């Protein structure tokens, strides 16, 4: 089962799906993990309350990989979704099929953006702090963002407008005055194509990037190839921060209070160890051990703290780029389809997030469309979506 | 060889806020049913985000200022990870990198005189829950009422050298924090707990000995006994080689009067501290800092001296009043309104103390406000309310701190009547009803007059000037 259906039938025409990282009270939320099999939250995510108030109806939930850190959902406890030897994403399938007009997802490690790029859909990962994370399964809190997926930029924009806004229940939620900047952004006129970020992409991905770039140029947008060796460092720092935060956040799943509990144990230490050993998958265990190591007294300064400093350097580097450009253009993934065989590399998502880590680590808005990714200045998500909407119009 | 004991304390104090540090659950867990004050946030369920209770930071700043600390104008919260069933999220949010207050100084006084104890830092953090072991069923239950209740941990430098100093230090912390109204500091209620770090060294040596830590001590008497025991054990080890001292955490068994090493598993561990990405750094701006500073009371000894000098109180009275900031506030408010510090003192030290005792309230629980007490004192001194009735008004003021004494007295017929017609009528009735007492009085028995007087007063519900009543009564009896 890759999609759980809502108990009550949704009759409105604004049907949406939400991924399994977003807490719902009428359906389980499992974060793709055996650890939370059947877990039903006592409260729902703020974004769902807002979407519901605006007339959107949730028809069901789409499966995610375990705690949403994998490629496109292949580590989900209910198995990978594979079609003709290609890894598929449940969320992208729900939108492509037309069952839902939009999806609300949690972008933890870029899996949303990768599947959107591969399926020629549109997604927006808004500026960090503009959409409440209240009621989302916490993994890498310093960078994860609620995102919207749809077939068109306009559909993304409509739902984003509804769910964005200050929320007192989220301490990192920006004040309304800051969030208002989203509607004041200037149109995107100059874009830097980061050549160092196109390394390792296959021909098809490269061709999509070129095509998109040409389309933008045709619209009068200046696209300039720019070399930059700092932004590509994002991946390494992000993997440290994400794993450390994940390790801490999933510590709460210990078999004591809720979720999976091992059958066999003779004391509390065995209860912890056996429950976690049996319930967590391999990628998650790797992330936990790696994250735990980065935070040890021995490694904290030379690994974790250094990653925090690298994050600041990257933020500054983007600021420097944005003095001359309105946005940067990069791929969102290295190939336009993941053959099943990529799973042979167990840690593929720790490498493939090379393309998504820059926006994750900085909290900058990122729009994926036409198989490519635009990363903009803080609060420029609407301008990015406007540009994509213009491309869509030209395409027709 | 002579040895000295070197002691540093880590004191956990529960802050007296109404709600918990990161959620809106009640923070008053004492006496509550298990898991009565819990929500998905303080139970560690996924999806809830911490929102800092500003009042907690207020109290953290106040505590820091009372203990002579510098306040970190940007203070941050960090996560401390460990597994224990009473810690639902498997991490405690605390302050590791930038605690709210640092570098303080607390002055104590013992039989050896005055001494300054340096404070290393004060940090804010959330409490953990409580495990309840059921021996009959061989099960353990978890109570999360206390999880996320705000605490401050006050870390001293190793400046203490005896049980007497430790007691004086703890008493001083209690007094100052209660004065700032940030904490109850009642060891019996668990609102003050103490970890004792102790080592010994030859007198005159600068080198610290091997340090052991005793955790979660919860009575001053137990702490004193533990310090004496540990000091003797350390000296014995150093002097006679009875054992090799190791840096470790020990458990104090107050019944057996001994300390025991805890399993290393319980103490060893890397807490993997890191900044909590869900809690933004708290920036204490000038306005906030100043308002906290201005809200602080004088130290008790400063108040005491001022009460004697400015209000002319005796040393004893000043001492009694300054035992609690609530008494001080009531006294200062009442004096300002009634203009008589002496009356205010008398009312507080007699009537208010009586009522507090009667109601089994601590001084700090007094809610009667000084302004109202002052108004009541004026009603009495202006002859508008009799003293006995004034006590009734005061009792009502305990029930409702907002109450206006004059309005209450009026509404409940407690105002002294100047209506001599009414007094005449009552006197006439009473005298007519008791010819025996009248005869006795006329026969020279003064006591008989008191009986008549009392009955008149009772009928008049105390609302008349005793002098007036007495005169009318005597005059009337003389006539009949
Ligand atoms: Zn709570």
Q: Explain this structure to me?
A:
Chain A contains 13 helices and 13 strands. In chain A, a hairpin with a 2-residue loop joins strand 12 (366-369) and strand 13. In chain A, helix 4 packs antiparallel against helix 13. In chain A, 37% of the residues lie in helices and 15% in strands. With 396 residues, chain A is α/β, with parallel strands linked by helices. Chain A has one domain: Alpha-Beta Complex (Amidase signature (AS) enzymes). Chain B is 41% helix and 20% strand. In chain B, a hairpin with a 4-residue loop joins strand 13 and strand 14. Chain B has 480 residues and is α+β, with helices and mostly antiparallel strands. Chain B folds into three domains: 3-287, no CATH class; 298-411, no CATH class; 420-479, Arc Repressor Mutant, subunit A (Orthogonal Bundle), CATH 1.10.10.410. At the A-B interface, helix 7 and helix 10 of A face strand 15 of B. Zinc ion (ZN) binds at residues 20, 23, 25, 38-39, 41-42, 148 of chain B. Zinc ion binds next to loops of chain B.
SSE blueprint and pairings:
The complex is a heterodimer of chains A (396) and B (480).
Chain A: E1 3-5, E2 15-19, H1 46-53, E3 57-62, E4 81-83, E5 86-88, H2 90-96, E6 102-107, H3 111-118, E7 122-125, E8 145-150, H4 153-163, H5 176-179, E9 190-194, H6 203-218, E10 222-226, H7 234-249, H8 268-279, H9 282-294, H10 300-324, E11 327-331, H11 349-352, H12 357-362, E12 366-369, E13 372-376, H13 381-395
Parallel strand pairs in A: 2-3, 2-6, 9-10, 9-11
Antiparallel strand pairs in A: 1-3, 4-5, 6-8, 7-8, 7-12, 11-13, 12-13
Chain B: E1 3-14, H1 54-66, E2 70-71, E3 74-75, E4 78-81, E5 91-94, E6 101-110, E7 113-126, E8 130-134, E9 139-143, E10 150-156, H2 163-179, E11 192-202, E12 212-217, H3 220-240, E13 248-253, E14 258-261, H4 264-267, E15 274-275, E16 282-283, H5 286-294, H6 300-311, H7 315-321, H8 325-338, H9 341-358, H10 370-381, H11 387-399, H12 405-411, H13 420-433, H14 435-442, H15 446-459, H16 466-479
Parallel strand pairs in B: 12-13
Antiparallel strand pairs in B: 1-10, 1-11, 2-6, 3-16, 4-5, 4-15, 6-7, 7-10, 8-9, 11-12, 13-14
Helix pairs in contact in B: 2-3, 6-7, 8-9, 8-10, 10-11, 13-15, 13-16, 14-15, 15-16
The complex binds zinc ion (ZN).
């Amino acid at each position: 089962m890759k999609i759980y259906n809502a108990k009550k039938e949704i009759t409105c025409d604004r049907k949406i799906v939400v991924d399994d990282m977003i807490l719902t009270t009428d359906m389980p939320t499992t974060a793709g993990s055996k650890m939370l099999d059947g877990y039903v939250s006592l409260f729902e995510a703020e974004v769902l309350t807002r979407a519901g108030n605006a007339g959107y109806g949730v028809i069901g939930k789409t499966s995610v990989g375990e705690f949403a850190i994998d490629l496109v959902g292949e580590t989900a406890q209910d198995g990978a979704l594979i079609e003709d030897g290609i890894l598929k994403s449940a969320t992208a399938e729900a939108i492509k099929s037309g069952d839902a007009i939009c999806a609300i997802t949690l972008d933890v490690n870029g899996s949303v953006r990768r599947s959107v790029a591969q399926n020629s859909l549109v997604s927006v990962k808004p500026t960090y702090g503009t959409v409440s994370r209240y009621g989302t399964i916490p993994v890498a809190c310093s960078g994860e963002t609620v995102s919207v997926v749809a077939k068109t930029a306009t559909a993304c924009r409509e739902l984003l407008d509804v769910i964005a806004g200050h929320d007192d229940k989220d301490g990192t939620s920006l004040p309304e005055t800051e969030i208002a900047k989203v509607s004041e952004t200037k149109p995107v006129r100059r874009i830097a194509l980061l050549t160092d970020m196109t390394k390792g992409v296959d021909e098809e991905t490269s061709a999509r990037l070129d095509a998109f770039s040409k389309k933008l140029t045709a619209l009068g947008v200046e696209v300039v190839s720019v070399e930059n060796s700092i932004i590509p460092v994002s991946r390494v720092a992000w993997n440290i921060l994400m794993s450390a935060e994940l390790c801490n956040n999933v510590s709460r799943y210990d078999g004591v209070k809720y979720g999976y509990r091992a059958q066999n144990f003779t004391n509390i230490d065995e209860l912890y160890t056996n429950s976690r050993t049996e319930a967590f998958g391999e990628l998650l265990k790797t992330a936990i051990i790696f994250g735990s190591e980065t935070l040890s007294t021995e490694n904290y300064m030379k690994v974790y703290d250094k990653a925090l400093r690298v994050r600041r350097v990257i933020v500054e580097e983007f600021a420097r780029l944005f003095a001359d450009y309105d946005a940067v253009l990069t791929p969102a993934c290295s190939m336009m389809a993941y053959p099943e065989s990529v799973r042979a590399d167990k840690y593929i998502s720790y490498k493939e997030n090379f393309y998504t880590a820059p926006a994750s680590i900085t909290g900058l808005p990122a729009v994926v469309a036409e198989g490519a990714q635009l990363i903009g200045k803080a609060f420029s998500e609407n301008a990015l979506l406007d540009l994509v909407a213009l491309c869509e119009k030209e395409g027709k | 060889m002579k040895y000295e004991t070197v002691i540093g304390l880590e004191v956990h104090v529960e802050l007296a806020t109404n709600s918990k540090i990161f959620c809106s659950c009640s923070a008053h867990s004492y006496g509550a049913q298990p898991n009565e004050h819990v929500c998905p946030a303080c139970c560690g369920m996924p999806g809830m985000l911490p929102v800092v209770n500003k009042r907690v930071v207020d109290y953290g700043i106040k505590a820091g200022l009372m203990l002579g600390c510098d306040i970190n104008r940007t203070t941050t919260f960090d996560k401390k990870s460990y597994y224990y069933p009473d810690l639902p999220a498997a991490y405690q949010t605390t302050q590791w990198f930038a605690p709210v207050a640092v570098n303080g100084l607390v002055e104590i006084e013992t039989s050896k005189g005055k001494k300054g104890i340096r404070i290393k830092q004060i940090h804010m953090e959330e409490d953990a829950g409580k495990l309840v072991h059921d021996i009959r069923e061989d099960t353990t239950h978890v109570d999360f009422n206390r999880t996320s209740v705000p605490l401050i941990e006050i870390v001293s430098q190793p400046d203490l050298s005896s049980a007497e100093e430790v007691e004086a230090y703890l008493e001083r912390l209690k007094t100052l924090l209660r004065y700032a109204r940030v904490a109850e500091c009642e060891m019996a209620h668990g609102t003050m707990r103490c970890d004792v770090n102790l080592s010994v060294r030859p007198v005159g040596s600068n080198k610290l000995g091997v340090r052991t830590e005793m955790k979660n001590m919860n009575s001053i008497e137990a702490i004193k006994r533990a310090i004496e025991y540990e000091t003797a054990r350390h000296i014995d080890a150093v002097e006679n080689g009875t054992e090799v001292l190791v840096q470790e955490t020990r458990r104090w068994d107050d019944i057996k009067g001994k300390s025991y090493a805890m399993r290393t598993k319980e103490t060893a561990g890397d807490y993997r501290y890191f900044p909590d990405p869900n809690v933004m750094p708290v920036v204490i701006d000038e306005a906030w800092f100043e308002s906290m500073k201005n809200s602080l009371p004088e130290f008790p000894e400063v108040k005491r001296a001022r009460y004697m000098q400015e209000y002319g109180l005796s040393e004893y009275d000043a001492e009694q009043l300054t035992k609690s900031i609530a008494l001080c506030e009531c006294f200062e408010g009442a004096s300002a309104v009634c203009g008589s510090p002496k009356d205010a003192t008398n009312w507080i030290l007699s009537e208010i103390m009586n009522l507090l005792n009667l109601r089994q309230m601590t001084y700090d629980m007094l809610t009667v406000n000084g302004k109202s007490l002052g108004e009541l004192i004026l009603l009495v001194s202006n002859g508008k309310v009799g003293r006995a009735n004034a006590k009734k008004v005061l009792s009502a003021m305990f029930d409702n701190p907002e109450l206006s004494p004059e309005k209450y007295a009026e509404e409940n017929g407690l105002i002294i009547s100047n209506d001599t017609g009414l007094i005449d009528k009552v006197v006439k009735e009473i005298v007519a009803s008791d010819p025996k007492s009248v005869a006795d009085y006329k026969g020279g028995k003064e006591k008989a007059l008191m009986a008549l007087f009392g009955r008149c007063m009772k009928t008049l519900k105390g609302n008349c000037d005793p002098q007036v009543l007495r005169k009318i009564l005597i005059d009337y009896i003389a006539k009949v």
